[in-house]
Amino acid sequence: MVSELDGVPVITTRREEALTGLAGMVSKGLGWARKYSLFQYPFVTACCGMEYMTVGSARYDLDRFGAALPRWSPRQADLLMVVGTVNCKQAPVLRRIWEQIAEPKWVVAFGVCASSGGFYDNYATVQGIDRIIPVDVYIPGCPPRPEQVLDGIMLLQKKIQNQPNRLTANWPRPEAAGRREG
Amino acid sequence: MSKAVIGALVERFPDAVYDAYEGVGGDDCVFVKRDRIAEVCRHLREVERFDLAPYITAVDYLGADPRFEVVYNMLSIPRNARIRLRVKVPEGEDGVVQSVSGVWRGADWFERYCFDMYGIRFSGHPDLRRLLMYDEFVGHPLRKDYPLKGRQPLVPEREVPDIFRGPGPEGRD
Amino acid sequence: MASQNVNELEPVGPAGLDTRATPGSFGAGEPARPLGRDGKPAAPGELDAPLPAKRMVVNLGPSHPAMHGVTRAVVELEGETIRSMKLDIGFLHRGFEKSCENVTWTQCFPYTDRLNYVSSIMNNVGFALAVEKLCRLEIPERARYLRVLTSELHRICDHLTLVGAMGLELGAMTVFLYAIEARDVIWDRLTELCGARLTSNYARIGGVARDMPDGWAEKTIATLDRVAALRDEVDGLLTRNRIFVDRTRGTGKVTREDAIELGFTGPCLRASGEPYDIRKAAPYLVYDRLEFDIPVGTNGDNFDRYLMRIEEMRQADQIIRQCFAQMQPGEIIVADWSYALPPKPQVYGTIEGAMAHFKLVMEGIKVPAGEAYSYTEAANGELGFYVVSDGGGRPYKLGLRAPGWPMLAALPHMTKDAMLADLVPTFDSINMIGGEVEQ
Fold it and tell me: Could you tell me the pLDDT band of residue B172, with boundaries at 50, 70 and 90?
């Protein structure tokens, strides 16, 4: 069992303390900037596309989350929203588009067909896009209600906020008790 | 009115057309030989004015001989009449039907679909290749002996160890 | 400087520039002269001649912004003109026919929902009519009215989606927002009725799944008024809009004979001038008791196809109001327990009810062996279901004639020798819905 005391640094230098505080602030700022400016690549295939259109429209506005602007080139996007069924013929296309998006990138599986194949368990459909690309947030539903989609986006935003980032990954951190290398 | 059309067909092509019957709901249907279907369709389009491109589909009667059947559902807009033509097709080398894409350009993709899904070949078709499935796919999916879950993935699948995979006939479902 | 003979100038001019390096440049004091080929003055008319170009093959890939399902178009361009186009489809093929062969008849309804996913109820009704034709079933009056009513509501949704998407892709984004808002309010009503906004799963073999909730009729009429206001707004923004008309009038023209030969049905056929509508030619359900008009176009271009949709929305509105006026209370599904689930008190109370329920759920409806083709006028054209049964509880074959199929197949013909920019409104106006075309 890990108790709170295990995480308490035994000896910290003032430099380490300052850098940890700064790393925390930078992480928070970076997370804030990333989560409120999602450039989505809407990989729309099927019926979920109708709900995607609704989520982007006036009533269930996706723009207030900063995520409204679809970028139709994978080079300019960072959120790959796979909306609808992906079948075996489409799979290489999806893989290539995912590879073309630059880090940091996130993938949202919108709808049951993208999450797990839906009820199309047959010769043509990929049983969930996580068989091809790693997924961050799954939004089930056939099709999901727009409120559900917004909930999924907010979940993704929370994940982005807490994500470790490459900028502060190598900054020195204070060692905790029992974890010093010998 | 459709019965009159069927009657006229039987009279005009007694050796190509056989077994006229009235199906469920008043549909008038007749069987046609697979090497005369283009001629019959040309007559239907030019004389009987069945000018709308028909809906062509195929059925796999596994166990029957001949195994496949290509069904043409036709509509004549000026006469407001509908008939159905059924063409029996054996499997294997003989399984070739005359193409009607020379009569209606709109029949082209329907025949490609029948080829893609059932493997029925159409002679005289300008571009007979797969329509919905990808070229690397082996087999014809809608045949009754093709397994429902017979996936042929194009992209190697990732290992996702923490997701429950249900049972499936192909080992890895 | 005064005009000097170019050939007498020093090759190295001021600031070390080579005055002969860029023929036609004016910086070295050469007199201006019209550009022609090989440094000679241009012949009259040569300036207007098109530049010779190589044909370029461009791939409009399966994932592209037109949001009309996934279609890959390989276009051979000469300048801006499309010389030929090859379509590669199948990126949304989900195995509808094969899936339906492995489930019971009632379990096919969700699969049919997702064919034309903007007007799902029409798919449900089409399939139900095909199976009822094979079973020789007569469905109750109220069920018929409910089917017609909901079908027309979804027809309005389909046309709104098309008009909105067409506006969006030609640059009118406000029209898209209005159309989606109108579609949303209709979906709110349908949620109250069917349980789902989009994929309704409403029809059953023998009738419909559930009856209208209390007060739904009044709410729907109010919704129709709101939709009519939004539709008139959209109409006012697009129909006399200079840019919209310039881009859609005269593009994607299909003559009447061509349209029939290529297999067009529905609004695209009527836009080309052929007044064929299944609701008038072979009325089914209660369409023979309703009064409505069929709009018919003259030119067969994109603008006419758009006008068909706007007018059909008006007619659908009229149909729905008449349905509400004419509908009487009654049964919504046949009383025969070999087709319809028995009511719950019978299922829990009587042996016959429990047995009937069990057999229907586990084995499916026993449809007599045979084959039937049934056709309805869906939002996009003739939606046909060719049903083959072997007497069991599962379909033996369920063939679908998608209304958008012939239109998509004809796209290369329609865009031959058109400009690349004309491909966008043409693709929009044929209303290709990926789910139904790629089954």
Answer: very low
**Structure-token match 């028995």, residue found:** C342
**Could you read off the pLDDT of C67-126 as tens digits, one per residue?**
576 888 889 988 888 889 988 898 999 999 999 999 999 999 999 989 999 999 999 999
| Amino acid identity for residue C57 in this structure | V
Mean pLDDT, rounded, for C173-189: 93
Which residue do the tokens 């069929």 mark? C294
Q: List the strands of the sheet with B17-22, edge to edge.
A: B17-22, B28-32, B81-89, B68-76, B55-60
Q: Which residues in chain C are closer than 8 Å to B80, comparing Cβ atoms?
A: 281-282
Give the phi and the psi of residue A134 in degrees, each rounded to 5. -70, 140
Q: Is A81 exposed, middle or buried (0-12, 13-18, 19+ CB in 10 A)?
A: buried
The ipTM estimated for the assembled molecules is 0.90
Paired sense of beta strands B96-98 and B121-123, if any: parallel
Q: How far is C426 from chain A (nearest CA, A)?
A: 20
| Ramachandran category for residue A38: left, alpha or beta (phi over 0 → left; psi -120 to 50 → alpha) | beta
Is A143 close to C199, i.e. CB distance below 8 A? yes
The distance of C397 to chain B (nearest Cα, Å) reads 7
Helix (H, G, I), strand (E, B) or coil at B96: strand
C22 touches chain B (CB under 8 A): no
This prediction's pTM:
0.87
Contact C279, C287 (CB under 8 A): yes
Separation of alpha carbons C112 and B91, rounded Å? 30
